[in-house]
């Protein structure tokens, strides 16, 4: 059964009603646009996606420019070869399917995000361009994937506070745009790292919990190919229990467990040592 929660938020003298849908099973699947370049039978494109396996599909990744306009990371595949269109076109088979665009990823880190969220004017432009880009390309929502606020090259201590401001402003404008146009509100989600220090220093979970539809916990990549020994990168019951600890910590912080989607790494990491 679908339950609706409601609340309100006020910014610049305007009050925006916020609605949240919850208590329905949620299976969120990420599609990486570089998988089309895999050799042989490993090649994977949007036509290979079963539109009935997931409730929400996320196209990874898009980016944005210094003037805060959204851009495809691979214009040839995403636009010219119809990657976006084929991906969102899966909804013709499954009317209940939602397709979203992830902005960010490892290559679009703090050096890009931090200056943008620090400026009120840039955030405003980012929000406006987000709505325009998502609607033009027939996406149902935005998944924020900043890796990672307050960390990596360009990260600032104020990223935590400023990132929360961006999320609030995105959500409020998504609500207003929906009320104005009569279209379903754009979804707003976020990828959250499993590392406890990353969460504490970069994510104002209490505030984010008010404005996001849910959070996607990156509970994988605990180990990499750069380590001297092979280990499980997405363990269920590892010896040190970092996975279980990450999930428990996230649930304790968020409190509303319906807000957390646990990530499962459906990939492998090669180590030839």
From TrEMBL:
Keyword terms of this UniProt record? Glycosidase, Hydrolase
One GO cellular component assignment for this chain's record is:
extracellular region
What's a GO biological-process term for it? carbohydrate metabolic process
GO molecular function terms listed in the Swiss-Prot or TrEMBL record? chitin binding; chitinase activity
Q: What is this protein called?
A: Acidic mammalian chitinase
Q: Which Pfam families match?
A: Glyco_hydro_18
Q: Where is the GH18 domain?
A: 25-273
Similarity field: Belongs to the glycosyl hydrolase 18 family.
Q: Which InterPro entries match?
A: Chitinase_II/V-like_cat, GH, Glyco_hydro18_cat, Glyco_hydro_18_chit_AS, Glycosyl_Hydrlase_18
């Amino acid at each position: 059964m679908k339950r609706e929660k409601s609340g309100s938020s006020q910014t610049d003298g305007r009050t925006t009603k916020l609605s949240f849908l919850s208590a329905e099973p949620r299976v969120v699947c990420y599609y990486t646009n570089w998988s089309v370049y895999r050799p042989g039978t490993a090649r994977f494109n949007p036509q290979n996606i079963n539109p009935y396996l997931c409730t929400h599909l996320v196209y990874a990744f898009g980016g944005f420019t210094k003037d805060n306009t959204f851009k495809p990371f691979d214009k040839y595949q995403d636009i010219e070869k119809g990657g976006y269109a084929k991906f969102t076109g899966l909804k013709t088979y499954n009317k209940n399917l939602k397709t979203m665009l992830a902005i960010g990823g490892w290559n679009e880190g703090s050096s890009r995000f931090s200056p943008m969220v620090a400026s009120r004017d840039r955030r405003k432009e980012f929000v406006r361009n987000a709505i325009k880009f998502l609607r033009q390309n027939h996406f149902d929502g935005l998944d924020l994937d900043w890796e990672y606020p307050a960390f990596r090259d360009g990260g600032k201590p104020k990223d935590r506070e400023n990132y929360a401001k961006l999320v609030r402003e995105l959500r409020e404008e998504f609500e207003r745009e929906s009320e104005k146009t009569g279209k379903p509100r754009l979804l707003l989600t976020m990828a959250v790292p499993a590392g406890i220090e990353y969460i504490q220093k970069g994510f104002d979970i209490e505030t984010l919990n008010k404005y996001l539809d849910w959070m996607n916990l990156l509970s994988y990549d605990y180990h990499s190919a750069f380590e001297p020994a092979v280990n499980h990168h997405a363990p269920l019951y590892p010896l040190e229990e970092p996975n279980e600890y990450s999930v428990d910590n996230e649930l304790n912080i968020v409190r509303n467990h319906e807000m957390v989607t646990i990530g499962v790494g459906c990939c492998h990491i090669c180590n030839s040592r």
